[in-house]
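Practice problem: predict the structure.
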Amino acid sequence: MKDVQISIIMATRNREAILWQTVEKAIAAIEGKNAEIIIVNDGDQKLVPGEAIANKIQFLNNPFRGVSFARNFGAANAKGNILFFIDDDMWINSEAIDWIAHFMQEEKNNKAVYNLNWQYPDELNTALNKTKIGRFLFIAAYHRMWGRMKQNGTEPQQGFYECNSIASCSLLMHKNLFNTIGGYRQEFIFQGEDIELSNRLRSLNIPIYAVFDVLLYHNHQDRMEIHGFLKRVEQGYQSEFKARAAGFLPKIDEEFTGSKKTAFEIIRITEPLWIFTYKVLPNLSLLNKLNARMVGLLSGLQKFKQWKNNR
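Answer:
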């Protein structure tokens, strides 16, 4: 890479078991390449990298200031002119780094933002398929970027797909563009920052593309059981609705009205019973549809509770 240096920025909060495996794969991916890895610790747990990797990463502390602040902090300390934001459970590879280096050398490609394609690793899919929550993720297509994008039609096998929103788990852009748009809005602590940033990009007519020429692996190991899954859903909506209440995103009062509001209020009061019922539901494939409905209902309940608490 003659003129391109890539800064890989990874914010993390209290996920040490997952983090170091991700870091090891990132180090292997950039070996011999003009790239750096920046880890921004946003948790309350002290992280101590092993001796084998300590001199191969830049390590910054950002205790509980939130994911948006952490990413901005990482970008401010980046030496590269290409910023590649990934989650602490996103496995990257050398093919993706080579693709970024080649593609971003062209100045015309530096005026848009890109999400690199991902899916769950095969070993995680195998483990998830044995669980009720895992089969829900497959039905909802949450195990692939295309499914998370909620697009109709067949997933592209290669090339670019223009879309309306970004996802910071695998987000690529030029540093000049990041600085021009002002980075992430730091009031967003855990979730909602991607919605706000997407709105800003569209208002500035900056294209957003999903890239299917490379493939990463998203290692969502902490989605294996219902409590861990619902906790992250709850935390996400809590951050998002606090931002909506503060005026950083439009409110969505019309979503919970009339009979829907009444139904969710009843479910809220009886939530322990619903979770108990889900847990005792037999782990059988023939109950997949019922299982998916219950997980969807409990996920919707987390959204309703945060809407109710932050009106």
